[in-house]
Amino acid sequence: LWDKSDGAPEFADNASIKLGAAGDISLVHNGTDSRLINTTGDLKIRSQSLKLETTDAKEYLRCTADQDVKLFYNNVQKFITQSTGCSISGTLDSDGLALSGDLVASNNAWIYSTNGGSGARAGINLNGSTQAIDFATAGSSNVRMRIDSSGKIGINQTPTRELSLHSPDNN
């Protein structure tokens, strides 16, 4: 048990360290996995800052008291809580989205549907620099209708009046 050579207690695989009258919490290593098992109440870890890392020191969770919680993928921050909500870096894949407030998009933001990859898409572009709304099909360069900042509408052409229509085959 006590190893004088390194000044630490040592236990064989599958041995347990148990605490509490009924062994309410235990630490077990079976030769492959390690487990901290709590059988009563909450398992509480108290700290001003908490980090979970891989064995080669790559972060995957960082919590800071009265500040934020950050989640990492491959040591790159992807999700952070903030006083106003949360921030996501990268793409959010979801099977649904319900909003109870404003949806605020950055300049030139697309709302679109794809064919499951990066190919053809149909969507709406909210262009912050021109304050126009573009409706596109078959890719972002195929704008089929545009409403400009003055309210002019162009279908298959740049808006020039209240409603402008253009037929590519002149019919």
Index terms:
16 strands
Would you kindly provide a written description of the structure presented here, covering whatever features stand out?
The mean pLDDT is 85. The protein starts with a strand and ends in a 6-residue tail after the last strand. The chain is mainly beta and 171 residues long. The chain has a six-stranded mixed beta sheet with strand order 11-12-13-14-15-16, with no helix packed on it. Strand 13 (132-136) and strand 14 (143-147) form a beta hairpin. The protein has strands spanning 2-3, 8-9, 16-19, 25-29, 34-38, 49-53, 59-64, 69-73, 76-82, 85-88, 109-114, 121-127, 132-136, 143-147, 153-155, 163-165.
Q: What is the topology, as strand order, of the major beta sheet?
A: 11-12-13-14-15-16
Radius of gyration from the CA trace?
28 Å
Number of separate strands:
16
The major β-sheet equals: 6 strands, mixed
Helix content: under 10%
| Average pLDDT metric | 85
Output the structural class.
Answer: mainly beta
Mass-distribution shape: elongated
Q: How much of the sequence is in beta strands?
A: 35-45%
Low-confidence stretches: none
The number of helices is 0
- SSE order, as H and E? EEEEEEEEEEEEEEEE
Cα-to-Cα separation, first versus last residue: 91 Å
Topology:
Layout: E1 2-3, E2 8-9, E3 16-19, E4 25-29, E5 34-38, E6 49-53, E7 59-64, E8 69-73, E9 76-82, E10 85-88, E11 109-114, E12 121-127, E13 132-136, E14 143-147, E15 153-155, E16 163-165
Parallel strand pairs: 15-16
Antiparallel strand pairs: 1-2, 3-4, 4-5, 6-7, 7-8, 8-9, 9-10, 11-12, 12-13, 13-14, 14-15
